[in-house]
Amino acid sequence: MSSVCVLTPIVIGAWPSIAAAVAGVAASMGFNIVAPERLELESQQPTRRKVQTEIPESEILEDEMGSERIVIRQGDVEIVFERDHDGSLKLCVLGEKHSKAELERIGQEVAGRVVQQFAYHKLITELKKRNYAVIDEHVEKDQSIQIRVRQGY
Fold this sequence. Notes:
Blueprint: E1 11-14, H1 15-29, E2 32-33, H2 36-42, E3 49-54, E4 58-61, E5 69-74, E6 77-83, E7 89-95, H3 100-129, E8 132-139, E9 145-151
Parallel strand pairs: 1-4
Antiparallel strand pairs: 2-5, 3-7, 5-6, 6-7, 8-9
């Protein structure tokens, strides 16, 4: 017996779980995480194009860490993830050599991968809690992930 489940994730978590998803995506897509002290030194950069968006149906739960921010960079593209005043995950893409449309495409791709990474880790954690074992998994060309599971003994 088998079934297919397509997940449409709602991103709700504390900052550490969101940060882990961002770090995983940064590494897999060739971005580098920018150290906070480097941001202060580089704030004098020339004006860059900027695209801002919010990840739909996301909520970062408040925790003792307060407001947080992660910046990742690849070439001249810089992506800033932070919690906005409503608790949503906000994404800002900056770049000098790209059009606003290109920056928006990059932002959408990264945002989609962050949501996917978050949902993947949440799903695997829940499966383990419910005594399921992952039998097989692979990533398709379109970056979708297929996972086969079996209920443990």
